[in-house]
Amino acid sequence: MKKIYLICSLAVFLGIAGGISFFLIRDANATIPSSTLVNQNGDSYKLGQDHSKLKLVEFIYTHCPDICPTTTQKMSLLKKDLEKKGLFGKNIEFITISIDPYRDTPEVLKGYMKGFGIKDDGHWEFLTGEKQTIKKDQEKIREIANSLQFQYKDPGDGQFIHSTFTYLVDKNNKFIAKFPMGKEFNKQDVYNNILDKIN
């Protein structure tokens, strides 16, 4: 009986270890595909064209009642810390991608930025779809999100159910690390990770 218990325990342990290894390997190999979307100014922005900086990628929708605005606020504070070190814009930029491109037009995203006091300095891009190609752009956004295993869906009431991670990617858009969104977003932890990857 004891032997059977040990064998079962070992099988469970190996199964868990295998599952963890699968997710670690999957994340480590994740790369954002090169895609062209439109930013808060209505200009085309090619994700993946800049190979000189790290990128902190956030997925949001502006009608989100809690976790998205909380994350953006914390990223805004992180931006100030990075600016003090002379790193923001030089070594790292922020990318915020709307998962609700139908409602989150460039004008709406620009207003969202202003609400958080985020300066439009060209180093924090807020991306969405273009009106004329909105369906195609929505598919591009889904592809980008899927590449990082960010899951989301609209149950029909406009309040999206979505994953709760932000992502640090390298100069070639390859996954480095992920961090919790909302209240669990630890600004200091993200800051330390960024410094570690820059140095």
Automatic annotation (TrEMBL):
It comes from Neobacillus ginsengisoli. CDD domains: SCO (cd02968). Keywords: Copper. Belongs to the SCO1/2 family. Residues 26-199 form the Thioredoxin domain. Gene3D superfamilies: Glutaredoxin (3.40.30.10). This is Protein SCO1/2.
